[in-house]
Amino acid sequence: xxxxxxxxxxxxxxxxxxxxxxxxxxxxxxxxxxxxxxxxxxxxxxxxxxxxxxxxxxxxxxxxxxxxxxxxxxxxxxxxxxxxxxxxxxxxxxxxxxxxxxxxxxxxxxxxxxxxxxxxxxxxxxxxxxxxxxxxxxxxxxxxxxxxxxxxxxxxxxxxxxxxxxxxxxxxxxxxxxxxxxxxxxxxxxxxxxxxxxxxxxxxxxxxxxxxxxxxxxxxxxxxxxxxxxxxxxxxxxxxxxxxxxxxxxxxxxxxxxxxxxxxxxxxxxxxxxxxxxxxxxxxxxxxxxxxxxxxxxxxxxxxxxxxxxxxxxxxxxxxxxxxxxxxxxxxxxxxxxxxxxxxxxxxxxx
Length: 351
Ligand code: UT7
Description:
Layout: E1 3-13, E2 17-20, H1 21-27, H2 32-39, E3 43-46, H3 53-68, E4 75-79, H4 91-97, E5 105-108, H5 114-127, E6 133-140, H6 151-156, E7 160-170, E8 180-184, E9 192-193, E10 215-216, H7 218-239, E11 249-252, H8 257-267, H9 278-281, H10 288-299, E12 307-314, E13 318-325
């Protein structure tokens, strides 16, 4: 029997500061109508000054460990594009604060695909026998790198963290990650970028502080998101032997409800099979897929035994997908998100 990575615990965390569309409209040239209609997002949560990505990651990681009923793992993989510092990685800090001991801990940077890439990395370490268990966290505090005057990015992004625990098992068990499809296209790297602050344009050499802010070309990113996530999901489903009409739930990167609707259309998946929680948390980057999982499992929209396809897309460009039959999971609700009323993508926006 192949040694597989089996998901046994799930947890998520969002920071306490809620920002509604109406509040954004008081600060910027935008409206609730525009944001809701064009994205499906109604509110997002952001960190207070002084709160860093590691703070979010520690909360989510602790919840995932509790959910799995364990207090230790063999490796921690943290997906983030907003590390606490350019150097060192944030994962060792998180491992230390969680009391996980001197385990290997490292960051994976694939922007909004980061969580799927991190899952694949941890699953590979488990399959190869290097680790028997892993804590995989997706965490980003994107509000810290947004231009406060950019109405487009501020309307979309929110902060958060989501985490899962994996352990070695076999592929026949519920929760086993059944395979991966991963890809990248660096020829379109400039569509999603923070131009400065890295080795190409060191922060100390910048003449324009705006180069330290996140920038995105919305329309081509939108088009890529639809085709890359649909293609990756299709390849993954074929690889693991699932006909697309046997997929019970698609948990895709939560960037825009119109993207989710279009991906569903490409794959022939009806609206009730597509998990949506971006209406209340926005695009939380590496936290997006696990936070959607947390919300859907807690609400009962996603239940044990369902064939669940996870799919990400983000800067790089990068994309990836994996699939699992959802195991029984105990999940605490996201703080501040107990009033779930949404089902299916069409409910999230006036499209
Ligand atoms: O997480 C990584 C992946 N990211 C994504 O998948 C995001 C993908 N892209 C999108 O979701 C959409 O492209 C956006 C939501 C970012 C933008 O929506 P859009 O329908 O593509 O709008 P647009 O960029 O084509 O802009 C249309 C108009 C422009 O005005 P003009 O030039 O037509 O006068 C924008 O300036 O909407 C304007 N606009 C806004 N208006 C009010 C852009 N942002 C806003 C805003 N409020 N917040």
